[in-house]
Amino acid sequence: MKLGQGFTLKTDQRLMLTPQMQQFLFVLQMTVVELESYLEKQLEENCLLELDEGRESAALTAYADSFREPVSYVAEAEGGVDVGELVPAAPPSLYDVLIAQLRQCELDELEFRAAELLIRSIDDDGFLRCDLRDISVECGLPMAEVAKTLQLVQTFEPAGVGARSLEECLLLQLDSLEIDSAVATLARELIENYLGELARGSWRKLLKALGCSPEALQAAVELIRSLEPKPGRRFDTRNYTSFVFPDATIHRVEGEYLITVHEPINARLIVNPVYERLLQNGQVGDPVKEFLRGRLEAAVRLLSSLEQRRLTLFKIAAAIVEIQKDFLERGLQYLKPMTLEDVAQLVQVHPSTVSRAVAGKYLATPWGVYSFGRLFTSGVSLVQGGEISSAQVKELIKRAIEQEDPADPLSDERLANLLAEQGIAVSRRTVVKYRQQLHIPSSRQRRRL
Questions:
Q1: N-to-C CA span, the chain
Q2: What is the DSSP track for 230-269?
Q3: In this predicted model, what pLDDT tens digit does every residue of 430-449 receive, in sequence order?
Q4: CB atoms closer than 10 angstroms to residue 131
Q5: Do 219 and 131 share a domain, yes or no?
Q6: Domain range spanning residue 366?
Q7: Which position among 35, 125, 146, 369 has the lowest Cβ density within 10 Å, counted as fewest Cβ atoms?
Q8: Confidence class of residue 67 from pLDDT cuts 50, 70 and 90?
Q9: Does 353 lie in the same domain as 257?
């Protein structure tokens, strides 16, 4: 085998993102809150950046002219939004609430320690997830004293906290209501002996076993349904959304739609004039000049990316106005099918750019604040041709269920038939999916006596 060296010529095509494009895509996907944090960091790291106080930057204009386009959007009249001032404090956790109540009790050191250990063993739903014997060993209290301490904790708010089962949780809440009536007595019996049958909706079996009237059973069931099966979840900070601020707003003014693109106060940036003059006058050495030139190029890339972000969000909002005029004028039930490709075609960008731009962002409309993603809906075929958005189908399902007979709720099959009578062809499986997305229980669970 003969070995050797040689030269070959090969051509191929590949997509290369320029630093400017990379910067733009990175900034584009940020929400208002994320952008504020990012720009704060950029202000700290790049000495050529500073907040705009009305001064013009000649160097910035010279470098950035090639990037700028005429923009017909409206920016914040006050110069931006100070997101930090609008973000509310996080609510107290369940542990914080329980410890605050514990500190108001008169307990000796060991009892306080046992109560604290019990509270630490309560999960986010409000249930006790430990063995009392472990608490007894750890704090050195007899089991009877630990059980007594648990009874104290179970009197704390929210009612039902510290229970070891669903039955105990519901009974604790029932006791806290201090209701002395036949309805409360029947509700207690249902919880203690027939919770499984109640969950399955076995009404005939319950009427026969309890020997009560349908009206009395319905009243007891309604009382139980008013109780909270997870008393701690309203304090669950895992699902807490501290703040939602729209990235753009669509206003209706005298029959026309005005689009506002929101941005934080620190998005109004310019090049620092002091360093700008140093670079222009050439009064610094080559190393410093090279450093300043690098910072200037980074600053211009960032400012250009911010401008492109504003323009892209404006164009996307304008495309939504064009496609979804019926929704903007009449409400969510008139939302039309709209895909990323539909908007990308109007904006004249790739669908992936639209996807990056709208991900995690919110749009304020005359009908409320919605995530951009909520407005992108698939279409459902109509029998006579054409399409209707899935949001409209969901609204029809919701309205039908709101108007149903509680004693004879609509099954998913009947809902599909009702939609078919209106010319909307959907399967029972699709109805189930839409109903679950609306957080509506099944017909069996909705049945009332």
A1: 91
A2: STTGGG-GGG-------SEEEEEETTEEEEEE--BGGG-E
A3: 888 888 888 888 887 787 76
A4: 11
A5: yes
A6: 19-80+245-371
A7: 369
A8: very low
A9: yes
